Amino acid sequence: LSILRTFGLMTNLIFKRKKITIFVYSNGLLFNAPVYFFSKLFYIKIISFVPEYLENEELKSLNFIQKLTSYSFLVNYNFLNTLSDKLIVFSNFLRIEYINKGYDGRNIVVQPNLTDLSGWCDPQQVEYTIGYAGTPSIKDVIIDLLYSIKILKTERFIINARIIGDSTNNNSLIPHFQK
User: Cβ-count burial of 32 within 10 angstroms (0-12 exposed, 13-18 middle, 19+ buried)?
Assistant: First the structure.
C-alpha cells in the first residue's frame, strides 16, 4: 500500500509543479525506490539525508528479519543515495564514505547535529555537560563530538563530556579519546 501511495504522490507532484526538489529522509527501500524512479524519469532533483551507517560486524549479529531490514538499508545507502543530486550527511565520516564510493564531494554537505549555539549563554557563567549514550564508535560521530568539545573549550566554554556505553567489538576507544 505504501508503494502505491508513493507512486500516487509522485504522479500528483509531476503534473502540478514546474520545478520540484525532493528531500528524502528515509532509509526504507520500499519508500525510496519509487521516488528515485520518478526523479530519474522526470528529471526531478533529490537531496538525501544520510544520518547513519551500518557496519558489517553489526550485520552478523542480527536475526533474519533484522537482516532483511538491514539489507534494505544497505541498498538505499550503497545505491539509491548515490543517485541523489546532493547529500546531507551528519558526520565527516559519512562524507568520506561517499567520496570513497566515487560521489562528488562538492555535492555533500556535512550538517552535524546540534549546531545552533545561538541560545548558549556567556561561556564564563554557565557550565555545560554534553552527554552521549550508546556504543561510542567512529561511525556514530563520537570523534566529531570530541573535536567539537575541544573547539568549544578553546573558546573558553566550560564543558564536560559524559560518555556512557559499551566498547565496540571488545576494543576500547579510550586510547583514541586520550589523543
Answer: buried
d(CA 30, CA 7): 11
174's grid cell: 579510550
Polymer length in residues for the chain: 179
Distance between CA 144 and CA 40 in Å, rounded? 34
Give pLDDT tens digits for 78-118: 889 999 999 998 888 889 999 999 999 999 998 866 554 55
Which pTM does this prediction carry?
0.59
- Residue pair 142/109 in contact by the 8 Å Cβ criterion: no
How far is residue 85's CA from residue 22's CA, in Å, rounded to a whole number?
A: 10
Sheet containing strand 45-50, edge to edge, reads 21-24, 45-50, 86-89, 108-110
Distance CA 168, CA 170 (A): 5
- Rounded Cα–Cα distance for residues 25 and 2 (Å): 16
Which residues is 129 bridged to in the sheet?
160
HSE on the CB side for 86, CA within 13 Å?
12
